[in-house]
Amino acid sequence: MPTVVAATDAGLRVGEETRFPGRDVRAVTLDERGDVWAIVDDDLWHEDRRIAGVGAGCRYLSVGDGVALVGTSDARVLRVVHGSVAAARGFEVLRDASDWHAVGSPVHVRSMAHGTDTVYLSVHVGGIVRTDPAGEEWTATGFDVADDVHQVAVNGPAELFAATALGLAHSTDGGDSWAFEWEGLPTCYSRAVAVDRSTGAVAMSVSDGPWASKGTVWMRDPDAGFLSVGDQVEGNIDTGHLGFGGGAVAFAHEDHLWFEGTWSHLPGRVNAVLVRD
Q1: Model-level pTM?
Q2: Coil, strand, or helix at residue 78?
């Protein structure tokens, strides 16, 4: 039975359990064993164990091979190894040599996705970059910075999907080249994307723009095209607020969660959602 994991500004919901009640859980991810890692206030936690202090600007998280990579709201990446925290210098070199630029807010890390042997990271506005799981070697992908990516998701060793202002972006070569898909969608603007790795199906948020009055979720089935999923919300379903796994879609808006056809209350306003198989 799939379990929803939802990070909020007043606790972490794991299924029916609330962890860290009253605390700001800013990001959450799962490692290869399915263990929960989270950024709680200014600290990185592995299940019920505090690992290290990482700072107030930390918003995104990827964990694997004994290394946690933490993305920040000021376009930095931190490496956490055995409780020691340091800047990912390769990312800083790439950032300083880039044509990244701010639109509406400072340039920031907006999403992270852990593939088989590569971690992918989206920057707003700065395209998609990749690194080894240790966060030591960084390169840009072939994603055009001007195409305004909001979230990246991984399916297998080389297949990627991205939620963008131009629709669903799809790569089958590890990000070297991209094609855009929107046929069958009511509009193309998207902020969130998630992949069910058990089936290869993709869920994405859809609206008519950054100041949309309503947002919806659509599923891209490899054989059936785009299908509407769930109820609409007021405004956008934002980056990271959509999860997909074990055939189940979950998404959150403000302090409400939609899962298996019903809405429920979260401990606080949502920061991130994922579905654990």
Answers
A1: 0.96
A2: strand
